[in-house]
Amino acid sequence: MPTSTLTRDTPPPGPPAPRRRGPGRRPASRRNSRRLAADLCLLLAALAFVLPLAWLLFSSVDADSGLTARPPTDVTWDNFDAVMTTDITFRPLLNSLILCGSATAITVVAAALAAYPLSRYSSRLNRPFMLTILFTTSLPITAIMVPVYGLFVQINLIDTMSGTAFFLASSQLPFAIWLMKNFMDGVPKVLEEAAWTDGASSMQALVRVILPLMGPGVVVVTVFSFIMMWGNFFVPFMLLLSPDQMPASVSIFELFGNMGSVVYGELAAFSIIYSAPAVLLYVLIARRLGGGFALGGAVKG
Amino acid sequence: MLATALTAVLAATALSACGDSGSDPDTIRIQFKKSTDAKNKIFDREIEAVKKEFEEKFPGKKVELIPVQVPDEQYYTKVQQMLRSPKTAPDLVYEDTFLINSDIAAGLLTPLDDYLKDWKDWGQYVDTAKTAAQGQDGKTYGVPDGTDTRGLWYNKELFAEAGLPVDWQPKTWDDVLDAARTIKRELPDVIPLNVYTGKPAGEAASMQGFEMLLYGTGADPLYDPKSKKWVAGSQGFTDALDFVHTVYNDGLGPDPQDALDPNVGTKVGTEWLPEGKLAIDLDGSWMSNNWLETGPTPWPEWTEVLGQAAMPTQNGEAPGRVSMSGGWAWSIPAKANNPELAFEFMKVAQSRKNNTRLTIANGQIAVREDVAADPDYQAYVPGVEFFTGLVEDTHYRPALPVYPQVSTAIQEAMEQVTTGDASAEDAAKGYDEQLDSITDGEVVEK
Amino acid sequence: MVSKHTPAPAGPRDAAGAARVPGQAGGGRRRTGPSKHPQPPNSVLRALLRALPVGPSVVLMLLFLAGPIAYCVWIAFTDLQLSGQAESSFVGLENFRTAFGDEGFINAVWLTLVFTILSSIVGQNTLGLALASLMQRASKTVRTVTGAIVITAWVVPEVVAGFLLYAFFRREGTLNSVLDWLHLPSQNWLYTLPILAVSFANIWRGTAFSMLVYSAALSEIPKEITEAAEVDGAGGWRKLWHVTLPMIRRSIATNLMLNTLQTLSVFGLIWAMTRGGPGDRSQTLPLFMYEQAFKNNLLGYGTAVALLLLLVGALFSLVYMRMLRTEV
Question: Would you tell me which residues 280-299 of chain A have a C-beta closer than 8 angstroms to some C-beta of chain C?
Fold first, then answer.
């Protein structure tokens, strides 16, 4: 996605840099000591956050893994070998990709369209609509799955990837619209006006002017929606019946043994493979676009 | 205009019928619960073999398998949803027998009596198994393919160290507690006796733990089939709770916090027993699956180290031992498209040859006389003979729609005595109140 | 297809639309329409045409969200069961009466409040703000590393996170190993303080979101203002209280609202860690709802509980709405 020079108002890549103070405002030594203190505090926090993740990394390469994080005595790739099969990893991951990919596409297109009038025209319906949408983001989806199942059987969408993708997209839509509108608010209208004087319609203005300008925003919404769907278990589990359509969030349960026995090493290995796409996607946008902070910017009040 | 087009596409998708739902008269759909153990493909292979045999026997007919691979609870949720509509109902479904009555009451299953009377093999099934999938109307709704039994596993090496007889068969509850006390005295680092308890252990607490005790206190201690009411306020119930109370309050069991860990079952099978940290375990016939070459914790020595004993009745009343059984059965949904063909498939799956193979593959206990007598079966895993012997004196849970709620109430009462929050009497009172609200007062005092 | 709009001057705005939309950038100064906007002559038609792009989203949300929710509202007033009954009947407010007389439900409400206040309002929110403001001062390397780690915790799928945290908090887990090494008393967190353990787990998982929101908000505070405050001799805390917080007030309200609503419906994390136990000491409303609906088969009752959960969410939202409305 080419970012034009006009995207001045998108945040710079990476976290916002500390502001340079004017010379002489504060002695450098004091500034340095403050920086050091901040660094130490952050590293301490990072350590606390990394501890639970350690178990995952250690057990995945430990031949004899339990539930305690300890450096592996006997490093092995066996756990990865064991789960790298069509049934456990490859097919479910491909299904996840198709399911979440298409659902994300639906979400992003629908959200971009919906955000346009909400951002560009004022109407007395805007506020109630936005509030409803914001509130919908918090629905306990589990609670409505039984009626949804009934509905899907009625309209013959049960056990179809397309139906499940539509439902996933709908459940993600409210938040996506909300984010998208906020990003769109950040694009100055002056640029559209130029397009209108050239005789373009609103839709043309949206597709040719606004969306390219809010490129980072679109990417953030896309990635965020994708990550949220990637981990969803209950929806595909209820709406898909055939095993060859099940995504990875369901197939992870293959690693919980019968009668409660769990093969922890394999579970850890699979978890790493399964989490990798979500983490990588995030890293990608963070590197390219300061995407995480763009997300933060869009959520502000 | 992009918007208009999209809206139209959406509406069209919603209205168009996509996904033909198996109303083809030459195809049957078989739903079963696939093992959640990734390495365990045995059952799948067996079903595949049956499918092949069936398709050879009935040329032109096709079998579509629907394995579902999730934890039990979610499997039930899914099955019950699927059975509700002819579009999603399979032709043959594999279910835990204790849910059968729920599904019968909801009108989701077909009675099989007309099919069974023309099937000579049905005579081979032991009587307790025949009633496993019987509805309250006396009709049979499912054919069980195997069962499980429960008893005491004990560690002979630890028994020898503590000066207890290596060939152990307790006659009463007190014998069990005495052995546990001896272990505690002689081997303070060892957990003397494990009885599953509390909500985290779930059905294992109700069945392996509590009902193994309760059913040793008298006839029909939980549900009275004559009056068709649940039993409240029985002495046996309080006594069984008191046993659990004693185990946990006298330090004869695991530390309550370990007993109330959701993964306690894993620990017992993969750590405590193989590592010699537990002397006596009240548990199921399938425990040895943990220690197979292909299991999570291979432990070939278990056959030497562990012994099995039947769980005694409370004071040695006849028949002197008690066991609980569960098991799974094949049923035909009321909304199945091809019930006749589905029953033909069931017959192939349950033929003597296939049932023997399947029982062995599933690590189950035989429900057919001829399978139980099969030399292959008797040799498949040490201890199978002992657990098969328990089938004559076993009990099935009252398979009624409210059983899951009753089971939860039992687990709550157990948990209270385990943590010492309540005495057995108080916990039993609490259960009675719960039972009253679950069954709308349809209870009987015993 | 290009619509034949002729540019026309924008009509006067109606006053009713003057309420501020949450999430509108620029502190809520309303934008006025550009003078060159294409518009059809008829105002009703114009409004409809303008709203057209919202169509697909509205259709999707009506069909897949509003429809099932409406059905849920109906279910909540029946005695529908998952299985075990031939037909269900309308029972009016029975389910709600049952709930308020049910100790388990009351317990779940309290735990939900504790969990939400502790992990969302106090934990994620404060920690997120602290991390964000430290990041403003820290060196680039440290900032990047910390950010990446905190965000990884957020991106990992919920099932996986539940397992990680179970392994972290259990008695032989990582946390106790660390405490032993520091010679601090350790205990079985999941048994003695389960609600605390799951709250910490939720803080671990959700702080990244608040951190991102606050980083963005803090970076937008004009430095003249903070510097002016420093010249006036405002110390760290006073500056925070009198300058920084009022400046990012709207971000705080929105973030609190999203966080709270998310936290109220957390299910998978607690389920994987404790199953709501021991006993029901960590059974928040979503878990209570799940147990009633899918374990005890009482679909009607479970759905009624879900409705009450939404009500709790609505109450919290109202409070935040008020926060958004008051002017500084």
Answer: 282-283, 286, 292-297, 299
